[in-house]
Amino acid sequence: MRILVSLVLLTTVLNCFAQTDTLRIKKKQHPAISVNYLPGKVIPHTEFVAGDNLLGKPLNHFESYAIKFLWQNPGYEDWQKVHHAPYYGFGISVSDFHDPVELGYPVSVYGDLGIPVFRLQKFELYTDFQFGIATNWEHYDSINNPKNLSVGGNLTVHLNIGMNAFIPLTRRLELGAGIHFIHFSNGGFERPNRGLNVYSPSMELKYRFTDRPDLRAVEMDHRTERSNDLYLMLGYGDHQLVEQELDTNYFAVGGISAIYFVQMSNAFRLGAGTDINYWWGLNAAPDGTIGPRKLENFTTGLILQPEMIIGKMTLTGGIGIYATHRNYGNFKQTYQRLGVRYDIYRNYSLGINVRSVNFMLAEFLEFNLGYRFRWRK
């Protein structure tokens, strides 16, 4: 399963950029390399971070050192024109929470996408989205690392959402600064999994191997083909009840989602629909053993799901409410979905989502296979 997580994350984020247009033109690539430093603060949302650790003090400080390999061109393909010539590529970072015994020095590999907000003469402002995996953790161990309830296994998701601003120093050298929110967790794949959240400023130095591409006139000169879609998704994951997070009992979650999407623009669609899942462990006994198979193991959710379209890749968000839920009750608990999917063949797609409640407590990783019925507009 770890191999599957790695393959889905990396291929959906990195391979999405290898797309082709029907119009073949000579394309001049504009590669760049950048080094980044993030001196951040850890958000104390758990007892472990707040001071219940082997150090006996809050884990306040965070540092990250990264190198990124990026490309940017003046809009050779439709998705690049739609997003006004973004930069894209991949990065590798090493993080330091100043607690090497309990957390180690995690190493992240991720895809990176920067979409411009505006360009004003030499000043440029971008949103920055990173999604990948982190490993090399010192994770929870009942004997050697009993206080670390934040990281339960050696593999987590690396999620970074931020803003970056750049100004040129020379013809090929740029200085950048930004602000970021960083999240590490494994989506409940291995508990305990309280996760780690960081906010941090950033400093970046970027070197372009060629002259800067002319991005001033990049705009979409036509409307891309749009559609309304009925999206059906089969999802599967492993779940463990939070109150049993120190046990080793995991139970399957499987279900189907049906969401109707209206495409609002070249880059955005909005959908509404329902999630129906069967949770094998929802009525597990206090000792962690599986309970009887009953209809009460079904949950029904109603969800509103906005999505950003980036060629064959889709960045997925969503907020829903459990209409029926054995443990939470009916219409009393919201849930969230955040992930990515990639169109693999015609109307079929593969993806992965993190399902959570209260915007911070992961329930499970939702591996999914989707099919869409499409009506052209």
What would your notes on this structure say?
- The protein is mostly beta strands.
- The protein has 2 domains: 2-12 and 23-208, Porin, CATH 2.40.160.20; 227-376, Porin, CATH 2.40.160.
- It is 6% helix and 54% strand.
- It has helices at residues 2-14, 47-50, 78-82; strands at 31-42, 61-71, 87-96, 104-120, 123-137, 156-168, 173-185, 196-208, 227-239, 251-263, 268-279, 298-310, 313-316, 319-324, 334-345, 348-357, 361-376.
- The longest helix has 13 residues, at 2-14.
- The two termini are 39 Å apart.
- Residues 1-24 have low confidence and may be disordered.
Biggest sheet architecture: 9 strands, antiparallel
Number of strands: 17
Number of helices: 3
Shape: flat
Look up the CATH topology of the largest domain.
Answer: Porin
Tell me the CATH architecture of the largest domain.
Beta Barrel
- Average the pLDDT over all residues and give the rounded result: 89
Structural class call reads mainly beta
Whole-number total of structural domains: 2
The helix content, as a percent range, equals under 10%
Taking the alpha carbons of the first and last residues, their distance comes to: 39 Å
Q: Under the CATH scheme, which class of the largest domain? A: Mainly Beta
Poorly predicted tracts of residues = 1-24
Q: What's the order of the H and E elements?
A: HEHEHEEEEEEEEEEEEEEE
Rg over CA atoms: 22 Å
Q: DSSP strand (E) fraction?
A: over 45%
